[in-house]
């Protein structure tokens, strides 16, 4: 049963991830929101951070509601948690979080990589103007994915006794529909994953070329551009780890193949919650403009 002792570590981990996620994502929204109020405009990075913070806040709320009901109200969870409203919000926030993370990796890649191809330079000089449209496209794509998933639907009676016991024909029909839905989500979300992988690979190539060029000019010297490449690469690789782990856990959860209430069931939920929390922590730690205000927040403003 979900309320057994096996759920206690899950509750502790999930609560820590939820508190961390709400803190860091709230920080991203507030600190960049203040900048918008002051200057009446936002840089692409600030706009990205606000969108990421809001999307992660929504995803954390959905995951926390799921975890709460799975532990304390298991019967309600098994019957109602995949209803139309919850399914829409889960699919929407999951998708938009992954798309926004991909937009951030594209931004890093274009701004830092040293490629000189004409199409790359065209994108590099126009990314600031294109970013709002990329974010809008991500939003519309995520809403479409969520709407299609609602239309495909999941077995409404997947945990009822009748579904477990009777009618092999009904059972077969009910199984076919969720598999089609999962395949659809897989195919769509593999696209931002492919872009993410490509951006990471391009940063690797750019760093290798830049490092090789600098070594030929002066041994043992690290330029500011090299440091920027290395820092961006570390950030994107960390993003990639969170991205892959969430994607894998999300898809495993969507297949309904993991026994409900098992240890693996709770581990999958914890992995999913690590993405919206950990990814935003890395954004703050990798940006010097965010580090000082965030440290002041953690230290509760020692100067007061």
Automatic annotation (TrEMBL):
Q: Could you give one GO CC term from the UniProt record?
A: membrane
Highest taxon, organism lineage: Eukaryota
Q: Which Pfam families match?
A: TAS2R (PF05296)
UniProtKB keywords: G-protein coupled receptor, Membrane, Receptor, Sensory transduction, Taste, Transducer, Transmembrane, Transmembrane helix
Q: Localized where?
A: Membrane
Q: Which SUPFAM superfamilies match?
A: Family A G protein-coupled receptor-like
Q: Which GO terms describe its molecular function?
A: bitter taste receptor activity; G protein-coupled receptor activity
Residue stretches spanning the membrane: 12-33, 45-69, 81-110, 130-154, 183-208, 229-251, 271-288
Q: Does the keyword Chloroplast apply?
A: no
Its record classes its membrane topology as: Multi-pass membrane protein
Q: Which InterPro entries match?
A: TAS2R
The keyword Protein biosynthesis belongs to this UniProt entry's keyword annotation: no
As for family, the record states:
Belongs to the G-protein coupled receptor T2R family.
Question: What name does the UniProt record give this protein?
Answer: Taste receptor type 2
Organism of this sequence: Puma concolor
- What gene is it encoded by? LOC112866958
